[in-house]
Amino acid sequence: MRILAIADEEDSLLSARLASGRLESPNVVVSCGDLHPGYLDYIATTANARLLYVRGNHDTDEQGYLDMGGTPLDGHIVQVHGINFAGLDGSYAYREGIVGYTEGEMWRKALMLAAKAVVQGGIDVLVTHTPPRGYGDLDDRPHRGFECFNWLLNTVQPKLMLHGHTHLSYGIISRELEHPSGTRIVNAGGFWTGEI
């Protein structure tokens, strides 16, 4: 299965690359957050692929996401072509008015998702907005990763984790990292394509 993952920064040439065939058409478009619903709908339509998404910390337009027609992953496991995708919205809570959670709140969400994974045949691709603590995050509160994501990766052992939030343009962020669980962690900032 070919995945097009997008996050944080709109790429004005992405739809042109898809339409011209310079970028191989994906089987699924996965948004890791902080992108306008109209942009997501446009990319998924151009790619002629199903759209799965989590909301980022700045994605407070709930109605826009409902109207868009994609499939929300927050707290759910969704199967596409035999691959189980699951997701968790938001970032570390650092101020009011964002999609944010404390570590304790995210622990509860992670525990519930792990329980669903047992019943629904596991998770192949974990989609989050924020990276795990120590794997592509930063030390400041707004860009801190969740420690419970490390537990979740060790427990459900997905093949792939896609996230955004820490922009590659910061200059100190790696596109890909390997987690001790064996999960390949990919920062989808801008866009990334790959197979699973």
H/E order of the elements? EHEHEHEEEEEHEHEEEE
Mean pLDDT: 95
Can you identify the CATH superfamily?
Metallo-dependent phosphatases
Assembly category: single chain
**Structural class of the helices, strands and pairings?**
alpha/beta
As residue ranges, the low-confidence spans are none
Our count of helices gives 5
What is CATH's topology name? Answer: Purple Acid Phosphatase, chain A, domain 2
Strand content: 25-35%
Number of strands: 13
Give the overall silhouette.
globular
Task: Please give the largest β-sheet.
Answer: 6 strands, mixed
Counted up, domains total 1
The spatial strand order of the largest sheet comes to 5-6-9-10-12-11
- Helix coverage percent of residues? 25-40%
Based on the structure given, which CATH architecture is correct?
A: 4-Layer Sandwich
Our measurement of the CA-to-CA distance between the termini, rounded to an integer number of angstroms, reads 5 Å
Q: Could you describe the 3D structure shown?
A:
By secondary structure, this protein is of the alpha/beta class. The chain has a single domain, classed as Metallo-dependent phosphatases (Purple Acid Phosphatase, chain A, domain 2). Helices cover 27% and strands 26% of the residues. The chain has five helices and 13 strands. The chain has helices spanning 14-20, 37-47, 62-68, 103-120, 147-156; strands at 2-7, 28-31, 50-53, 71-72, 77-80, 83-88, 91-92, 100-101, 125-128, 160-163, 176-178, 184-187, 190-195. The strands form three sheets. It has a six-stranded mixed beta sheet with strand order 5-6-9-10-12-11, with helices on one face. The longest helix is centred in the middle third of the chain and has 18 residues, at 103-120. It is globular, with a radius of gyration of 15 Å.
